[in-house]
């Protein structure tokens, strides 16, 4: 593990690791970070039980990393930023600091790394260490040794569950000594983690912002195995918008779906042209374009170019996608934890564990746009856990909640968000607001920053939040 602050060894010492689980109640002790990732930021480590269940008799602890970015001037409170994934660290927010400062003026930004990610305790400590061959990513032989280690110790692997991570978040919030109101922001998987924290009991927070909220966990229409259907539905809306736009329709000269199907048939015969498509899979490539508005608007032009045997648009769009990814920055702790992705996704969010490759092939045969996720779920290879009784249950206590959802979200659909809001209101909540962001995809903070800033300001001020539109 790298050392973003000089006192890391204090927490890595044998004595520190044997301190009782009660240590998690101690206030966070921030020190100046020394990694120069975000100058002026403060860093802390926080000890938590490896498991909050009865099967943690030895008092084993894990370490959680938190980076604090103090507000400019006098602090009026704080906001916890809960990353998505699963498997993403808090570094996914670092490149968005200007938008975050504008969105939460006067509030300190508190950015934790989930257990199993970033500078927090990792699932495979040797293979995911900064000094290993792949750094915090798994490469080469590290895949085999990491998976072997986790399968040899399934009890430890299962400690990296959503409910344990939700208890971590509750512990972090309780350990904060910051003055003023506290808010929580979560995105994508982070919204599921925040909701699980609320299922566990009330949180001492002023309000919660859920960006691109997950659907109800037990709703089979939107679990991860259905992701290609969600992607395709959004993609068909994009094609329909082209058909209804006079200029786009005239450029194509025919319905967009007809053109798309002809291009797919062409690529099945023209292997040289297919080889120019990243991944040699047009359905997945265009499905990925839906995540980035600047790339999404090029879909009709890409189809037209491919129909004529050209690849100019493929090259241009690939550049747009790379540029969008690089806008989030590159940080040592940003590597995705694939083991954590596998365990949580398979245990909590796949309602069709018996799905086979043949099933996926059959389902995707008639789709125009797809996601790689259903096939990734087939791989497995790590211990899973039985989702506990909190899964799919009503939230115990609901603070004011703002849900920001894009109408063209190909990951967590707008209809799924509506269902989740309705589910929250079953808990008796009257303070849950669903704010539509028209034409926006996933991750409003990143893809529609002006709408996010406007909505966050109004929510923090206790004002009604109105729907917004992404300007392309």
Number of strands: 10
Average pLDDT, rounded to a whole number, is 89
Q: Please give the count of helices.
A: 21
Alpha-carbon distance between the two ends: 41 Å
Question: How would you sum up this structure, described in words?
Answer:
The protein has 472 residues and is of the alpha/beta class. It is built from 21 helices and ten strands. Helix 10 (256-269) packs across helix 14 (299-307). The chain starts with 7 loop residues before the first helix and ends with a strand.
Q: Quick recap of the structure?
A:
This protein has helices spanning 8-12, 14-17, 97-103, 142-152, 154-157, 162-175, 189-199, 227-244, 246-252, 256-269, 271-274, 282-289, 293-296, 299-307, 312-326, 338-348, 357-364, 373-379, 414-425, 444-447, 449-460, and strands at residues 31-32, 42-49, 61-69, 77-82, 107-112, 182-187, 207-211, 401-406, 432-438, 468-469. The chain has 472 residues and is of the alpha/beta class. Helix 7 (189-199) links the parallel strand 6 (182-187) and strand 7.
Task: Write a concise keyword list for the protein shown above.
single chain, 472 residues, ten-stranded mixed beta sheet, 21 helices, 10 strands, globular, disordered N terminus
Task: Walk me through the topology.
Layout: H1 8-12, H2 14-17, E1 31-32, E2 42-49, E3 61-69, E4 77-82, H3 97-103, E5 107-112, H4 142-152, H5 154-157, H6 162-175, E6 182-187, H7 189-199, E7 207-211, H8 227-244, H9 246-252, H10 256-269, H11 271-274, H12 282-289, H13 293-296, H14 299-307, H15 312-326, H16 338-348, H17 357-364, H18 373-379, E8 401-406, H19 414-425, E9 432-438, H20 444-447, H21 449-460, E10 468-469
Parallel strand pairs: 4-5, 4-6, 6-7, 7-8, 8-9, 9-10
Antiparallel strand pairs: 1-2, 2-3, 3-5
